[in-house]
Amino acid sequence: MTKILQRNLYREVADRIGDLIEHGELSPGERISEKQLCEKFGVSRTPLREALKVLATEGLIELLPNRGARVVRLTFKKVKDTYDLMAALEGLSGELACQHITDKEISTIRTLHNSMLEHYHQHDLKAYFELNRQIHESILAASQNEVLQEMYSNLSQRVKRVRYSKKMTQAFWDQAVKDHENMINALEKRDSQLLGQILRDHLCNKLEVATLAGVIEDGAPGEGHGIVNA
After folding, report:
1. CATH 1.10.1780.10 matches 10-71
2. What is the pTM for the complete model shown?
3. Residue 7 carries which DSSP code?
4. Is residue 214 pLDDT above 80, yes or no?
5. What is the pLDDT of residues 63-98, one digit of tens each?
6. Which class for 209: exposed (0-12), middle (13-18), buried (19 or more C-beta within 10 A)?
7. What stretch of H or E contains 142?
8. Strand, coil or helix: what is 53?
9. Angstrom distance (rounded) from CA 30 to CA 99
10. Cβ contact 17:51 at 8 Å
11. Residue 13 in 3-state DSSP?
12. Which of 60, 102, 176, 194 has the most CB atoms lying inside 10 A of its own CB?
């Protein structure tokens, strides 16, 4: 990994550590070695510790009194509770977006959707997830509610390694694509009630993939089925 050359960039350090957690290089419950990370990033302990404080507020790690820090363990209940709140916020964002969005913004989102479909047909999961993320973020931005966007972003970071899990069945993927097509159609019609409901249903109770991926410690597959924010 490329070293961080600039000084005091605790946010960049935090992002790098977040990437390690997301990609499984730092596992749930694993103690974080400040010495190893300082060497990896080429930074001193000061920006590293500031980064750890940021990640603690974002729910990715927990600080242990006089014992350093470790990666947060994701439980089924914690993820479900987070998803329930995110679903409410995303549903509201869709309703607000229908009130404020411009024709140009809708056209841009439709283009993103069409590109996402191409990657779906090519079974390119990584590129699919990237466009998927851009679509959801575009709808959030169109809500023109900065507080909503900030809250959603914070919650999303907490479960990022769950939402973009690479373990996903074809059936789940197929249904997610259908959901997205319905989402775009509702947005083009500016049907706020329908879009809000689609977005809520799309995110709620989608924990089975995360359970299969092993990132939820006490997964309960019988309690919720779905795909991780696809």
Report:
1. no
2. 0.73
3. S
4. no
5. 988 788 999 887 888 888 888 899 999 999 999 999
6. buried
7. helix 125-142
8. helix
9. 45
10. yes
11. helix
12. 60
